[in-house]
Each structure stands twice: as structure tokens, then as C-alpha cells.
Amino acid sequence: MAATGRMAINPDLANERRKASFHVEKLTNFIYHGVERVRTMQFMQNIVSQDDVVKKTKPWAFRTNEEKFDTNLRIYSALSRRVKELGITDDFSMRYFNKDVARNEVNMLYLHNEVFTPTIAMHGTEEQRKKFLPLAKNLTIIGAYAQTELAHGTFIRGLETTATYCTETKEFVVHSLTLTPTKYWSGALGKIANYCILMAQLYTQGKCHGPHMFLCPLRDLVTHQSLPGVELGVIGPKFGVNEINNGFLRLSNVRIPRDHMLMRYSKVLEDGTYIKPVNDRLVYGSLVMNRATIVNDVANGLAMACTIAVRYSAVRRQSELSPGQEAQILDYQTQQHKLFPLLAEAYAYHFAGDAVQNSYLQMSKAIEAGDLQLLPVLHALSAGLKAFGTWGASAGIGVCQMACGGHGYSQASGFPKIYTKTTPTCTLDGENTVMMLQTARYLMKCMKKMQSGEKLPDLVLYLSMDLSGKSSMSSDVDLPILVTAYQHRAARLTKAATTAAQMLMNDGRSPTEAFNMASTQLVWAAKAHCHQYVVNVFVNTVTEAKVDNNTRAVLTTLCKLYAVNGILENLGEFLQDQYFTAEQVDILTDQLTTLLTAVRPDAVALVDAFDFHDELLDSCLGRYDGNVYHALYQFAKSSPLNEKDVQDSYYKFIKPMREGQDIMPSRL
Q1: Is 122 in contact with 285 (CB distance < 8 Å)?
Q2: From 5, 166, 305, 413, which residue has the greatest number of CB atoms within 10 Å?
Q3: Are both 141-277 and 284-453+480-607 of the same fold?
Q4: How wide is the angle at C-alpha 101 spanned by C-alphas 97 and 106, nearest 5°?
Q5: Class assignment of domain 141-277?
Q6: Contact at 8 Å (CB) between 537 and 357?
């Protein structure tokens, strides 16, 4: 397991692990899809945690932004050499390597490896892949993804950067006409990248064909100096993850060869003729995978936050539940209610992200063959799920931090890095409300198809359910009954939002106006759709899992807790049409209490099953050995301000003030 150091395990944590009802490693193997994958994951973790460069690195909290930038590259460089020496090249191992190197910071080359290079592979022609992928893989070219501009982000059609084809030279001229098309926020763009994938409006033969992707050189491949016509730099300190080196980019009539437009789906011939893609929806494929990956990433962040909070809550003792001994704060029901539903939510997001990825991979061959029937439903689902998961994870991490009291506010807790890495995902790859409205637009189309008698895809088939029915829930609170409740809520809200928009159009509003005026209801419907999907996936995962009875039992408890808590938190939407009775609400409330009690003896084991090693958590509060107070004391002592007993500022400012002396400006 993931302990570091040689201190004895805190007795409270040791006791928590002894009383677990299931075998932790069996659940770990289930979470990560098998023993071999877990071994690979742990092997890559050990490579990182045992490296001398990592061990000798100054704590993250005491580094300046410049030091974080330098340290990130130094660690990545040293460990890349080590991985190369070991001959490790498979995608799975490298994915965990990149995650472990960053340790909740953002690996400087993450976007190059996970966005830039895969985009070339997915959107480049065979010739382009042969030409550019080897250069990307050996870091001859290091790439960023430049889409967002100062004035436009999620609305891609509004981007202002232009790429105009010149038939005389067979080149594209890329240009930022004014200040607002300045590319902004792109990770690694400021100082690391020498290339980028540039999203720009394509102009050829006097006509605009909308946004397309271009490979744009930025820096000389030898000197790393900016190329003529290219102005770029970093955007300055942010809320967090400053090591990712977000940048700005302005282009002044920069010429790039014709083969630098990614032309797998759409093309510009040498004479300037534009050939549009066979189907515009082909570009959705990469979006589905990217957004499913984001859901997995934020599930990971929430799971780490829960790990810290649950372990600390088992170690921290405060006040008395019975005379004579301070109680573990994990024994307080209010603490359980804060943390255990979030723990269940982390598992739920993990399974949901896996499910979307698996669905896409299963149909990828059909997509390659031109069968795009299921792509719209997956695109809509991934957009909404990205928003649903990132909102939930960001909020949940904040709850975990506050549940740890004052120590949770310290950089020593590990929460600041986790939170500031997770919260940007609410706007990354599309602002969340816009993402929800994309899902809502699809649900509206499905509702209209259903009303006209057309068959719906399986993922939205529930929209045709009879909404006059009521819950048959009894004291058992069976999983299928919970799924039906979530589907009823989503179907009813979708019907209500679609009806509201239609009534506005009947009153003379344009479709665009009607959509906007009904958009709040549409977002409610999209959230409910995503929520029912996550619950459904969790239930299917539990019921179909090939695991022992004890593991299945604890997963079933978590699944019920996630579903029951979700109903109680959104009770108004389940009661609006009297789907539940008052007596059934009482049953759900009692069930919540029962489930919290059931999770309590397994809580520490459930976070242990995520198998986060201490170096990755980087938390004094969430250490595997539970020696929290020793770690906090050592963290405090390591502050650079403690290197001197008396700071120079005392002699410069405090002492003169105490002696009534004026502080001359030259001394400031």
C-alpha cells in the first residue's frame, strides 16, 4: 500500500483498517480493471517516488512560480530518462507516469502528450501523421492547443483568428487582425511550446468555411526564439496550477505550408478548392473522449480529497460523545454526512467516466466506417457529464477541505493543489452551462422525435416512460426503484422544458429566443439526465461486477448512498408531481442514516482502495500512516521564514518604528 517513511501507523487508523468488511486490494483491482493494471500503476508510482530528484525537491508550497516552472521540468526530464532506460513505452504506463510526475501539479508536457499529439493522430491524414507524430514523440516539436481567444472561448464559431489560403505560394496566412483574437489561456504556450494546434477561421477562394485546425510553428526549433510575426508569452499568475505556463499568442501575417492544415476530414486542394467533411459530426469523436477523460480526472481529484478528509477524520479527536475520551470526528454523524456521500460520488464519477470511454471505444470502429448513429447521443452525454462531474467534484473538494477544520486551510493539507487543479475543469474544454445547454438541445430533439413516434437510442429511451406513474418504493429501497425515480425526474423535467420552449415559439418567439427564455429549465433537465445516467451506471456496475460478496456488498451500500442522498438533495424535483409520498420521503431519510452507519466501519478502507501514494497526495493530513501532527510540525519548521530567528525586516522597519525613527523611502 501507499505508506512512506518508517513511522508506526497511527493506532486509530490501524484500528479502522482492521475492522473493514472487505479486502482492500480486491476493490483496488476492481476499480482499476485488474491485477496487472494495478501492478503497472504501482510500479510507475515507485519509479517516481523513489527517484533522488523527487526526494530532494523543495516542498511545493514554499516554491515561487519560477521555481515551480523549473522544478516541474527538472523532475520530468530526469524521470523521462529513467523511463526510457527501462524501455517503458505503452500508453497505460505512460499515462500513470505523467500523473505521478505532476503530483497534483500539472505536468508541463501534459498538454503536449495528451492533447497536441493525439489531435494530430486523430485529425491528421496518413501523410501528416507520418511526418509530424515522430517529431512530436521525440520532442523535436513541443505543442500547445490554441483555441480560446481574449474575446471568445466556448463559442468556437465566433473565433476571430483567420487562416487565408494563398494559391500563389500554396500557403496559409494566419493573422490576428485586432487585439481580441489574441489566443489566451493555452497551457504550455508561453515558454515551452514551439508549435501549436491553432484553431482559426479558414478562408479560401474568398469564402469563410468556419473554424479549422492548423499546425502553426511558433519558435525556432534550434534556438527556441520566437519566429517573425509571432508574439507570445505567459499570461501571469493564476488562481493555481501556475506551473502549466498558460500563454498568449498574437500572429501577424504568419505563413504556414498547406500541409499544416489538419486534413483528415476536410481539405484545401492546391488550387484553393475546399472539400468539406463527409459528415460534420466526425469531429465529435475526440470531444467525447476528451470529456470522458476529464470526468475521470475530476473523480480522481474528489477521491484524493476524500482520502485526505476521511483519514484525518479518523485520526482527529475532538469533544466527547461519551465521558472521558475525545471522539474521532469521523464518529459524528454530521461529519459522516459531509464526507460519505462525497466518497460515494467519487466512485460514481469514476465508473461513469469509464462507461462513456468504453461506449466510445466500442463504437469507434463503426465511426471509422461512417456509421455515426450513436455519436450524437454520446456527444450530448459527454458534454453534460463533463459539466455535471466537474461542478460536483469542485464543490465536493471544498466540502472536504472545510471538514478538516483549520488545518484544512493550510497548504500542508494538500487541498489547495487538488482544488486548483480541479476547478479549472468547470471552464476547460467548454464552459459548463454551455455544455449543459448542448445536452439540453439534444434532449429537446429526442423529446420531439419521441412525440412523433420515432425510436430513440437506448441511452435516452427512458424519455418515453409513462409520467403518470408514482414510485413503488417500500422500506427495502431497491436499486432498480431508485433508477426509475431518477429517470422519471429527468423525463419530466425534459418534457416540461421542451413544452416551455415550444409554447414560447407558439407565441411568436424565434427558436433562438425561445431556447434562451427556457434555458434555465433546460439546464435543470440536462443535469437530471446526467444524474440518472451516473446512477444507472453505478447500479449496473455493482450488479454486473465479478467480485466477491463482501466487495459487492460495500459497493452496493455506496451506490445506495449516492442515489438516496441525491434524491434528498434535490427533493423538490422529485416531489413536484408527487412522485414520492411523504411516507416515502421518511423512508429515504431513515435509509440515509442507516447507510451512513453502514459505511462508517469501511470508510478508511474505501479510500485506501484508491491506492494514492503519499507523494501524490502531498498532504500532512492524509498520510497513510496517520502521523498528522508530526507532519504538520515538520512542515512548519521547513518554512524559509524559519531559517532565521530574526528577519531582516525587523531591523529595517519594526525596530525603527519602536524607537520613533522615521523610515526613509530609500530604506524601503
Answers
A1: yes
A2: 305
A3: no
A4: 110
A5: mainly beta
A6: no
- Nearest CA to 567 out of 438, 456, 481, 661 is that of 481
Burial of 477 (0-12, 13-18, 19+ CB in 10 A): buried
Instruction: Dump pLDDT digits (tens) for 229-253.
Output: 999 999 998 888 887 889 999 999 9
The C-alpha atoms of residue 301 and residue 394 are separated, in whole angstroms, by 9
CATH of domain 284-453+480-607: 1.20.140.10
Query: pLDDT digits over 190-240, tens only?
Result: 999 999 999 999 999 999 999 999 999 999 999 999 999 999 999 998 888
Residue whose C-alpha cell reads 448512498 in the numeric block: 561
Instruction: Say whether 327 sits in a helix, a strand or coil.
Output: strand
Query: Average pLDDT in the 646-654 region?
Result: 89
The residue ranges of DSSP E strands in 147-298, in sequence order, are 162-166, 171-175, 183-186, 195-204, 207-217, 230-234, 247-251, 254-257, 267-268, 274-275
Residue 316 has φ and ψ, to the nearest 5°, of -75, 130
State in Å, rounded, how far the first CA of the chain is from the last one. 52
Separation of alpha carbons 231 and 233, rounded Å: 7
The answer to whether the pTM exceeds 0.90 is yes
The DSSP annotation for 29-59 comes to HHHTTSHHHHHHHHHHHHHHHT-HHHHTSPP
Contact by Cβ (8 Å): 154, 164: no
Contact (CB, 8 A) for 551 and 596: no
Name the strand (E) or helix (H) holding 126.
helix 126-137
Grid cell at residue 419? 482544488
Residue with cell string 479549422 = 212
**Measured CA angle at 445 (ends 440, 448), to 5 deg:** 125
C-alpha cell at 239: 488562481
Residue 390, all three cell numbers: 466537474
Cα 580 from Cα 570, distance rounded (Å): 12
Q: What single-letter DSSP state applies at residue 412?
A: G
